[in-house]
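Quick entry between incubations.
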Amino acid sequence: MIATLSVVERQVGLLLSVLLALVGLVMAASAGYGVMAVHGSMALVLGIALIFAFSGSVSDPEPPADRIYHYYDAPIRFGIVMTLIWAVIGMAVGVWVAALLYWPEATPAAPWTTFGRLRPVHTTGIIFGFAGNALIATSFYVVQRSSRARLADAVSPWFIMIGYNLFSVWAVTGYLMGSTQSKEYAEASWYADILLVVVWVTYFVLYMRTLARRNEPHIYVANWYYMAFILVVAMLHIVNNIALPVSFSSDQSFPVWGGVQDAMVQWWYGHNAVAFFLTAGFLGMLYYFLPVRSGRPIWSYRISIVAFWGIVFFYIWVGSHHLHYTALPYWVQTLGMTFSVMLLVPSWASAGNAIATLNGAWHKVRDDATLRFMFVAAVFYGLSTFEGSFLAIRPVNSLSHYTDWTVGHVHSGTLGWVAMIIFGAIYTLVPNLYDRSQMAWPRAIDWHFWLAVSGTLIYVVSLWNAGITQGLMWRTYGSNGSLAYSFLQSVEAMAPYYLLRTIGGALFLAGAVLCAFNCLATIRAAPRGVEAIDRPLSPQPAE
Amino acid sequence: MTTHRSRSVSPDDVDFKDGIQEVDPVTGYDTTGHRWNGIRELNTPFPRLVLVILMLTFIYSVIAWVLLPAWPIGKSYTHGILGLTQEGEAISGFVAIEKTRQSWLSRFDKPDFAALAADKLLLAKAMPAAVRLFEDNCAVCHGQKGTGGPGFPNLADAYWLWSGEPKEIAQTITVGINSTDDDARFAQMPAFDSLSRSDRKKLADYVTALPQGKTSAKDPASALFADNCAPCHGDDATGGLENGAPSLADHSVIYGQDRHTVLTTLAHGRQGVMPAWSNRLSSAEINLLALYVAQLASKQNERTK
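Done. Structure below.
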């Protein structure tokens, strides 16, 4: 990191490190003990480590002057490594909690090993740690390449990467210590939320400044998707996390929203986290890496634009479909349901556009596991968006809601779509970032592909069965007018499916571990200081 | 297997020049002329099929908006021509299912257990419902088969704390034991920490030996037992169904009758709680459950015979 920074940038970095250490010190000192004190200490230690790193090299010579002729890839490399680390952590905890559902007493009954604390570690580890790092890293890659411009400055990418990962670590360690806001996918404490706001605004500004420096007349559609992701996630995160801290020395806080309004804000956030974090951003990834890898033009420019505006417009309405048959007024439910149905066509248009792009490159899909990852991602994107619109229809939802069908649906999206497109992107950009012609172990990509596909199918199919079984058992009445099954029987009926989902998850995890080692081997095979060979159009002096 | 390298373009690449439209040989469509790092786009027209399906989803939505509550207007909203409300749907569904259920369940309103148990046709309808009621409400403590566990009575054996008659079981379910109900059955094993430790040890040895019948009146601990325990558990230690004191002469004590457990019980006492169910279950459901639980025990007894 530091070797790529100029002397002035190192001084700014030193200043920021001092600031981080001070913030950590104030947090730890004011809290005294408990979760916030631990988190303050973490920030303090990280700040001090960075201070040592910077102060030892402030007077080192300037980096080579020709760096402005290259893309700035160092933060991307860091982001990819973090993506892989979080993938292994998040998926391993996922397999752990899946196993706990089958063997409830498998792990010692310490507070931090309970399902309630581990489950958000899995979701945050995957959504923020794995998916978030992948999105930020690939967005830096895509915005530079598709704009033919170097990132607008060298300090803020590092601020974003380090700040974002500090947020993620604060979040998951907080859950393990029993700290939570009790909002799904927004469990992190108020101070972690503030850190994420600062990081995210910096991210947005950097992205816009880089786009403003582009050497292309038009902004490529992938960047529109990434911009929607950055902008809307900021909006969602801020509104849903507005809270009053109990005190400035406590990790606890009260949300300003109450009752059904709180539920509506939460699911407006929750669903659009799926829409803009797990969909829009990844469509950006798909729209860049799929044509690059297949060597084919995007099938339809019009569809890519119309689908973008369709997704952005319709998605923001549909959160209320998470609250069918609740205290939420009926009319809000109807709107959520109908907009979910209208959302289907823009979603399918994107999936169809991706698959049609592969026309003329099917022989590559057959031979190249990396491209196959992207193809399968587009297929699962189509499947899970159809399923999403279908489940949003009220009578369907009355069967599926509160069952494992929902969990199966989410995983067909996260395993089949999000993770597959991430792996496709990683296998494409890692060799390029380290100027290798291919991954160190090309055959391991094939192994990974089949582990991932079989793991996803086993997982998703078993939970479809589980969810439909549960839904039917809960609602079936006997001829005597009383329920045909007790809840206990519906729990017993889950055993085979929960075992299968654990196996499916373990297969998927095995593939991810293989990917991490493959990337490690590729990185180690590259000579030190090697750069990607592609270049911006013209020298880009740092601002 | 071949692995394709990502397409990376250097500034010298002739490809990058913008604005050159060309025909894609695979699809026959023109490109838009844009180029981003080698990425091109086809100027494919918007497919008619996509537009048709889009229109279908719009029509579906408009129909739903006309029929159902949908759009807010000021402080109110459009109610839809079907006039549906969530409350109305829930209540009408409940009323319909409850009518079928009450056709037989109302027979259980009166606790005439002898007549109910004799009506085989009624039981054929009622007992499957009783199993679900038991599993949804009672099994969490008493176990799916009613066999209990440490601290929770076995309902499928011959031993009872408050009688196994359906009438008494119904009373226990209605008011609970040591519950917040005003009429709760009350039973407390006090802590005998006022006794010296050596006395408690003697008592523990005595009580532990009771089920084996190895105690004798000459044992000095029998005087301790008579003074401290007999008022509730009886002189012969067989307990009493009137006050919920368990028999200590068999193996039915729900906390266990090994020496260590008895010492803990003597030192700290026991106040097991069963909640009152009258606020959650109807009296007919309670009577149904009482009959089921009573039969649970008698079935078990038949099996062991």
